[in-house]
Amino acid sequence: MSDKSLKELIEERFDVDSQQLPVFNRVALELQKLKQSETASMNQIADLIMKDQSLASRVLRLANSSFYSGLKRVDTVSAAVIRLGMDRVTSLAMVASQLLAHSMQVKAVSKYVPALWSRSYVCATGGRWLAQQTGYGALAEEAFLTGLMHDIGELYLLKVLEKLAQDREHPLQLTDALVGEILEAMHEEIGYRLMVKWELPEIYAQVTRSHHAYEFDENNALLLITRLLDTLCHKLGIGQAADPEIVLAATAEAQLLGLKEIKLAQLEVMLEDVVSEANGLLV
Q: What angle is formed at CA 143 by the lines to CA 142 and CA 149, rounded to 5 degrees?
């Protein structure tokens, strides 16, 4: 057995594998950069997606899913871009890339994947809706991506734990208690460092770092939205144990966003369909 602590082993892997483990898709990240360009065209977006055939096929599947499809099926990425627009398609590409990343073989870690995915997708879709409902419509796609990626540290840690469990010389014996402890203790800071290393915008990295923090920036709308959705997932038992006693309207996040009980109730109802959609996408 290695005499290094598990945290040391994870840090060692971070130094070596943080840009190798399949957590982020390079094409999906390039799309985000291209979208920021004032000269980006629909053809450039479509051409970049087509560089990764696995990603392209997933984007088409998503574009034709019940949440996004129109009356007529789209059969090309170009058609998807025309129907949905550049912003929505680049977000779909990130969803598609994350779906591809949520694939693991070791049962001790793979069993955590459905819960992590459903929570991430719910936070993404709910984040877009909340941004539109609270006067932050201009940040709707950013809220979607923030929700999708805010727990990227958990995905990365599960990937690392899987590798350590598959080590031929010193396989790590994983228990639910150990995995849970590692995810809770390390996912925010590891997620932040991962985003910095991959050069994602600071707006996403800061939310990743602070979405469970006791003290937080009350003026950061994306952070408020993501934290509120995390709390709602806890209340409803999405990706974790349920706590129906949580009163969303009493949270600082809901009050800072100006959300009343009726709007929060609408959000809860809407998310019931989103959970079903998330589960269907992971198949």
A: 85
